[in-house]
Specification:
This protein has 301 residues and is mainly alpha-helical. It has 14 helices and no strands. The protein is globular, with a radius of gyration of 19 Å.
Length: 301
């Protein structure tokens, strides 16, 4: 990995550091929409494995790229410190130079672009515009002169790109049409991703406020952000139930309900670092289990 990224003023300390910097505990948010979108395609009689795999590469690579890009942008702005809760900060901690982290993001985005190009050539060249929009949204989340993640729009972007776009897009590259079922299924997927981001930002509330980052959680405050987290989780299960009215096997995803108790309790009652880190991990696990079960249910429907 270091050979790809090049040498910087700081020496990166092995591939494990880059894995931590990619924030693997949150990558369920990029895996889930591809699973669900593929299940929608399979339920409608058209499963194309290589296109599903390419969509997975696009989705995961974009999330890894945005995680590195956030690390770089927050590090050079000084809004990250090594003492902040959560995953390792490569730039702020000095484990890698800003140039190395920027190159890591570029490598991830390039991989996403190559996989996306293969899908666009095979399916529809208009997908290139969708891909450009996704990469720009990822880069501008905390980058550029006016990062929208600092202005309270991160949750909306996650709902759109890791819900609607990724789920419908995955189904589209296999079905070659927009599926109403994929649109419906994209919302519980996206709400799971919103819940992950809310849990992350509730954990980072004090540090973000001190750094001048006006995330949605900072704007709303702790109490209302907790209420929004509860609403996002509840809406995720409500929408699964509504999908189950038309596709009864999808109701199997409701079996994940007991897994919601832990994250809800932690987010609503805890303010300490370990408790909120556990809430984030539990929320990512909840989204993954809901989406895996929804994938199975849709596939069988």
């Amino acid at each position: 990995m270091e050979e790809v990224l090049g040498k910087g003023s700081h020496s990166a300390r092995g591939p494990g550091i880059w894995l931590q910097g990619a924030r693997p505990r949150t990558l369920a948010a990029s895996v889930c929409p591809v699973l669900v979108g593929t299940a929608v395609a399979a339920s409608q009689g058209r499963l194309l494995a290589w296109r599903a795999l390419a969509a997975m590469v696009v989705s995961v690579a974009i999330q890894v790229g945005v995680n590195y890009a956030n690390d770089y942008s927050d590090g050079i702005r000084g809004s990250d410190t090594p003492a902040r809760l959560g995953p390792v900060r490569l730039t702020a901690s000095g484990l890698a130079s800003p140039a190395q982290v920027r190159r890591a993001a570029a490598v991830a985005f390039a991989l996403a672009a190559l996989a996306g190009l293969s899908l666009a050539v095979a399916v529809d060249l208009r997908l290139l515009l969708v891909g450009v929009a996704c990469i720009l949204a990822a880069m501008l989340y905390t980058g550029g002169p006016r990062p929208y993640g600092y202005a309270g729009f991160g949750e909306l972007a996650v709902l759109v790109f890791f819900g609607l776009v990724a789920t419908v897009g995955t189904a589209y590259v296999q079905l070659e049409r927009v599926s109403p079922l994929a649109v419906a299924a994209s919302f519980p997927v996206g709400l799971g991703a919103v819940a992950i981001l809310l849990a992350n930002n509730i954990r980072d509330l004090d540090g973000d406020r001190a750094a001048g980052k006006r995330t949605l959680v900072v704007r709303l405050g702790r109490a209302r952000s907790r209420a929004l987290f509860v609403a996002a989780v509840a809406a995720m299960f409500l929408l699964v139930a509504l999908i189950g009215v038309a596709r009864p096997p999808a109701l199997v995803a409701l079996a994940a309900l007991p897994l919601a108790a832990g994250p809800l309790r932690l987010v609503c009652r805890r303010e300490d670092g370990p408790g909120l880190v556990a809430a984030l991990v539990g929320t990512a696990r909840l989204q993954l289990v809901v989406c895996v079960l929804l994938t199975v249910g849709l596939w069988l429907s």
